Amino acid sequence: MAIKLGKNHYGKQAVHLTRVIRHPGHHELRQVTVGVQLSGDYERAHTHGDNALVLPTDTQKNTVYALAKEHFTGAIESFALVLARHFVSRNPQVSQARIEVVEHPWQRLHFDGQAHPHAFVGGGSEKRRAVVELPAGGAPPRVWAGLQGLLVAKTADSGFVGYPKDEYTTLPETTDRILSTEVEAEWEYTSAELDFNALFDKIRLGMLHTFAGHPSQSVQHTLYAMGERVLEATPEVKEISLVMPNKHHIPFNLTPFGQENTNEVFVATDAPFGYITGTVVRE
């Protein structure tokens, strides 16, 4: 029986980078986590212990920091493209570089309507994400963007009725419930030559507008509406995938205490939870 090496890659993960961008009169604080994956001619490294083509992962880490001073001044997608092009152009054994950048947002503090020049507050659970895949040989890069940890809720315009029922069903139908989810979204761009910051802001705001205004019949219903809005409004996006777990808020039974719960008092539960995903594409 013949044995050979299958698909493989290697790289450096969890490279934590903080960058202070010093503008006249104020600073920006940028914090990201970078992952590098290199694919290519690494068979002899696996089969013979020959490291002649293995760029050390420590070198990859150092490259992230060294290139950050000049090149990490704008969109995380742009920085990921710089890193991918560096590794592909400098290492002929690399057939593809994949770079992932996750940004942990900081916002300038405001006092009396004025932004403080160099003091910041963390952005909570939400993170912005970018992925670049660049093949060797002159093929164009592919660029994905997205977000994680976007916690949203609404207390009206949400229901869940008409579902199958059997002997194990206890969930009552409702036309008035809390809809809460922690959105994770990823979309692929049509080009690597775009205004990534402006597009990210537009897409994020569009999803929030849709979530708030959509008369939801289920999480699936709202997930599709949010993806549909992005594709209709943004021709630069090929497709979008969303993950929207249902963060359940269960009405608490106040009857033993002589009170009626008119959808005002709830138990927030962490687990178990509904897990809903979907990809919205163009035909």
UniProtKB/TrEMBL annotation:
Pfam families: Uricase (PF01014). The active site is at K12 (charge relay system), T57 (charge relay system), H248 (charge relay system). SUPFAM superfamilies: Tetrahydrobiopterin biosynthesis enzymes-like. It catalyses: urate + O2 + H2O = 5-hydroxyisourate + H2O2. Catalyzes the oxidation of uric acid to 5-hydroxyisourate, which is further processed to form (S)-allantoin. InterPro entries: Uricase (IPR002042). This is Uricase. It is an enzyme of class 1 (oxidoreductase). It comes from the Bacteria. Its EC number is 1.7.3.3.
